[in-house]
Amino acid sequence: MPNDEQPRGFDGLHPGDTVRALMPFFVIAGLGWVFLFTELFRLDAPGWVYFVLVTLALGVSGARMVRLEALRPGDPGLLVTRTREVGPVGELMIAGFGAFLLWAGLFEVILSGSTEVWGGVPSDKSISLAEVVLATVMFALPGFFMVYWRPMFVVDLNAKAIRRYPFGRALGRARSFAGSELRVFSEGYWITNTRHRPGVMIRGKVGKHTFELELVHGNLGEAYVAERVAWWARALDARVATEAEGA
Predict the structure, then answer these.
(1) What is the pTM of this model?
(2) What number is the average pLDDT over the span 185-198?
(3) pLDDT tens digit string along 15-24?
(4) Strand-strand pairing, 78-82 and 114-118
(5) What does each C-alpha distance from 198 to 85, 213, 219, 225 come to in angstroms?
(6) With contact defined as beta carbons under 8 Å apart, do 246 and 185 qualify?
(7) Which residue, among 97, 116, 102, has the nearest Cα to 34 in the 3D structure?
(8) Buried b (16+ CB within 10 A) or exposed e, 116-151
């Protein structure tokens, strides 16, 4: 499959991922304000190293999230679909709280290479390695997953192939599947915890992984849904799933 990270233009923004892509920059701003613009902390040599590395990692990941996840690809033959769609309000709560946790954990990491200043007097107390490890496990790690963990699939109709990104396209590490490994099926689509059924969802399945291909709105009948399922199967050299395979 061709490299789907190459720029092919874009067609609008994905609202949820746009909100999420801002979070690394908010973490950078929060860390920068605390360590550079207040008089409470003085960055020592290790602290500067940690601060620069953390800032670079967050900045690069945030830029990749904007380019590869927030911007919808303009190539009509390239479909980016998510295991679960999350809107801007949902991302503001999930990724927003995750960014706070990430900030708290990284703050402790940078603090381990810095000196606290109380009333203009440097403190002789320092954070212990155990405290840094605890902050990383309790705050930074959960925050990382809340901000970055968004499994995605890229369906390339031209190459008739699928790439699965366990953490999303921004962090890479994709696994490729040939279109012949894909099974296409449909099922009723319901709004969670409601009786509202907006339509039928056409899904793809490779191995144990399922993702959304198309939402057929309304009640257009089984014949039309079957036609759309068959179209996706032909377009990707896949086959229509049996009832057991779609379960």
Answers:
(1) 0.83
(2) 73
(3) 999 999 999 9
(4) unpaired
(5) 15, 15, 8, 14
(6) yes
(7) 116
(8) eeeeeeeeeeebeeeebeebbeebbeebbebbbebe
